[in-house]
Design a protein that fits this description.
This protein is 55% helix and 8% strand. By secondary structure, it is α+β, with helices and mostly antiparallel strands. A hairpin with a 6-residue loop joins strand 2 and strand 3. The protein is elongated.
Length: 364
């Protein structure tokens, strides 16, 4: 095999590949759609057309895409005479022979490449790169980085059609346009971030304004306890507030030790977590065909406006998102240290990488 052919296989083996199918076929229970074929650059030859992430066409309500891999294609290949056609009809089209001996090399290349990478910043050159839409989409970049997905696109998929539908069902319980609208409204109003969590931070912020400095832990505890007493809070609310304060202090101390939070600085609101998740829910809904591109764009623009009302910079937003992710999910994500490391890594990448939207886009 030539060096060029090896390089092509290496790239394909480490890439997300997509096969187009009709939405009707995709929605038919128990129906497995066979690999399609089409003519290509050589007359009389049949090609199985696949696309990479960057070559996916504009959103179409009835054409959806299933994600696959080079290894999966090698295992389900339908005909020894057919070729693999990558990006057919584009300036980047590539044809790959697919006889049994070739498919063995696909499997070897896939084994070397492993799974598509996560914990990376993926920017689409044809996506939104400036302006309000790019700023809105960048609010969802934490999850995009952790999953190794494009952050700056409202397109035909978020991950792929089936995965987008599955992610809407769990954890969001979204199965149609109406339930999507309800979840999005709740996220945009920051109703899912937690009333107690937001209360204790806003209480500290008000006290800090009054004192002219960040309160000491005991001052914060006393202020929250007094505020809850005035509301005749029950013991469970007092216990929940104490636990939230403990977690916030713990992670803010870690942030200071790791150099991402200045001495005396603090996180004043957690609404960024709901707003960041809202952007990803919009992108998932678009991929699942629960909204159209115009609706999705309007929603992302509004989410961007809400974020600018709540935060003063990308760094402030990112820390609010990071802190909330940690205090909510530390018990649910396996190794606590690994969860912290990955979450902090996404924050560092987004706030320090010179190509990150948090460095290239103005906050407002």
């Amino acid at each position: 095999m030539s060096g060029d052919a090896q390089a092509v296989l290496g790239t394909l083996a480490g890439s997300r590949l997509y096969v187009g199918i009709t939405r009707l076929d995709a929605d038919t229970p128990g129906h497995t759609v066979p690999l399609p074929w089409r003519p290509g650059p050589v007359k009389g030859r049949r090609y199985v057309p696949v696309l990479t992430q960057g070559l996916l066409p504009p959103w179409d309500p009835e054409l959806v895409f299933r994600q696959t891999t080079l290894a999966e294609l090698a295992r389900i290949w339908p005909d020894n005479k057919w070729w693999l056609g990558v990006g057919l009809g584009t300036p980047y089209e590539t044809a790959v022979e697919a006889r049994p001996k070739h498919r063995k090399t696909w499997l070897s290349a896939a084994e070397r490449a492993g799974r598509p990478p996560s914990d990376v910043l993926v920017t689409h050159g044809g996506g939104a790169l400036s302006g309000p839409l790019a700023r809105g989409l960048a609010l969802g970049a934490h999850l995009a980085v952790l999953n190794g997905l494009i952050w700056n696109q409202l397109g035909t998929v978020y991950e792929d059609y089936g995965s987008d539908i599955a992610r809407m069902r769990s954890p969001w319980r979204v199965v149609n346009r109406a339930t999507y609208s309800g979840v999005l409204s709740s996220l945009m109003a920051a109703r899912l971030v937690g009333r107690t969590q937001e209360f204790v931070l806003r209480t500290r912020r008000a006290l800090a304004i009054r004192l002219g400095r960040t309160p000491a832990p005991e001052e914060w505890t006393e202020e929250v306890t007094a505020a809850l007493a005035r509301r005749a809070a029950d013991p469970s609310e007092l216990a929940e507030a104490a636990e939230v304060m403990r977690r916030v202090r713990r992670y803010e101390d870690r942030f200071r030790a790791d150099g991402v939070l200045a001495p005396g600085a603090r996180v004043d609101t957690l609404v960024g977590f709901d707003l960041g998740r809202a952007v990803n829910v919009v992108r998932l809904a678009l991929g699942a065909r629960f909204c159209d591109p115009g609706e999705a764009e309007r929603a992302v623009l509004r989410i961007g406006e809400l974020a600018r009302e709540a935060y003063g910079s990308w760094a402030d937003f990112s820390l609010g998102y990071l802190l909330t992710r940690l205090i909510y999910f530390e018990e649910d994500e396996g190794s606590e240290e690994e969860f912290y490391r990955r979450s902090l890594g996404a924050h560092r990448l987004l706030t320090e990488d010179p190509t990150s939207p948090y460095r290239t886009l103005p906050w407002s």
